[in-house]
Amino acid sequence: MTTKKYPPIPGFSDRAHRVLFELVLRDGDWVEVTNICHSLGLNSHQIRRAVNDLCAAGVAERRREYVRAETGRRTHRTYFRATESSEALA
Question: In this predicted model, what pLDDT tens digit does every residue of 51-63 receive, in sequence order?
């Protein structure tokens, strides 16, 4: 079995491609950053630049929600989803 290699999208890093494919596989649902990290085997610091590049290019959207942690302290959760135009890129 051979796998077909597709040329990379100009301007996106390998990590940005991996994050984009992960978001597209979620069918437009909002995905928490930690779920993306676990799926790709990376930590949040390793995907930060990739998701910022995708948002700047308009192929991903960001949403931040403020919640109370178990300790009662106020914190936030960040979610991402692929835009409709990103499916053509993936």
Answer: 999 999 889 999 9
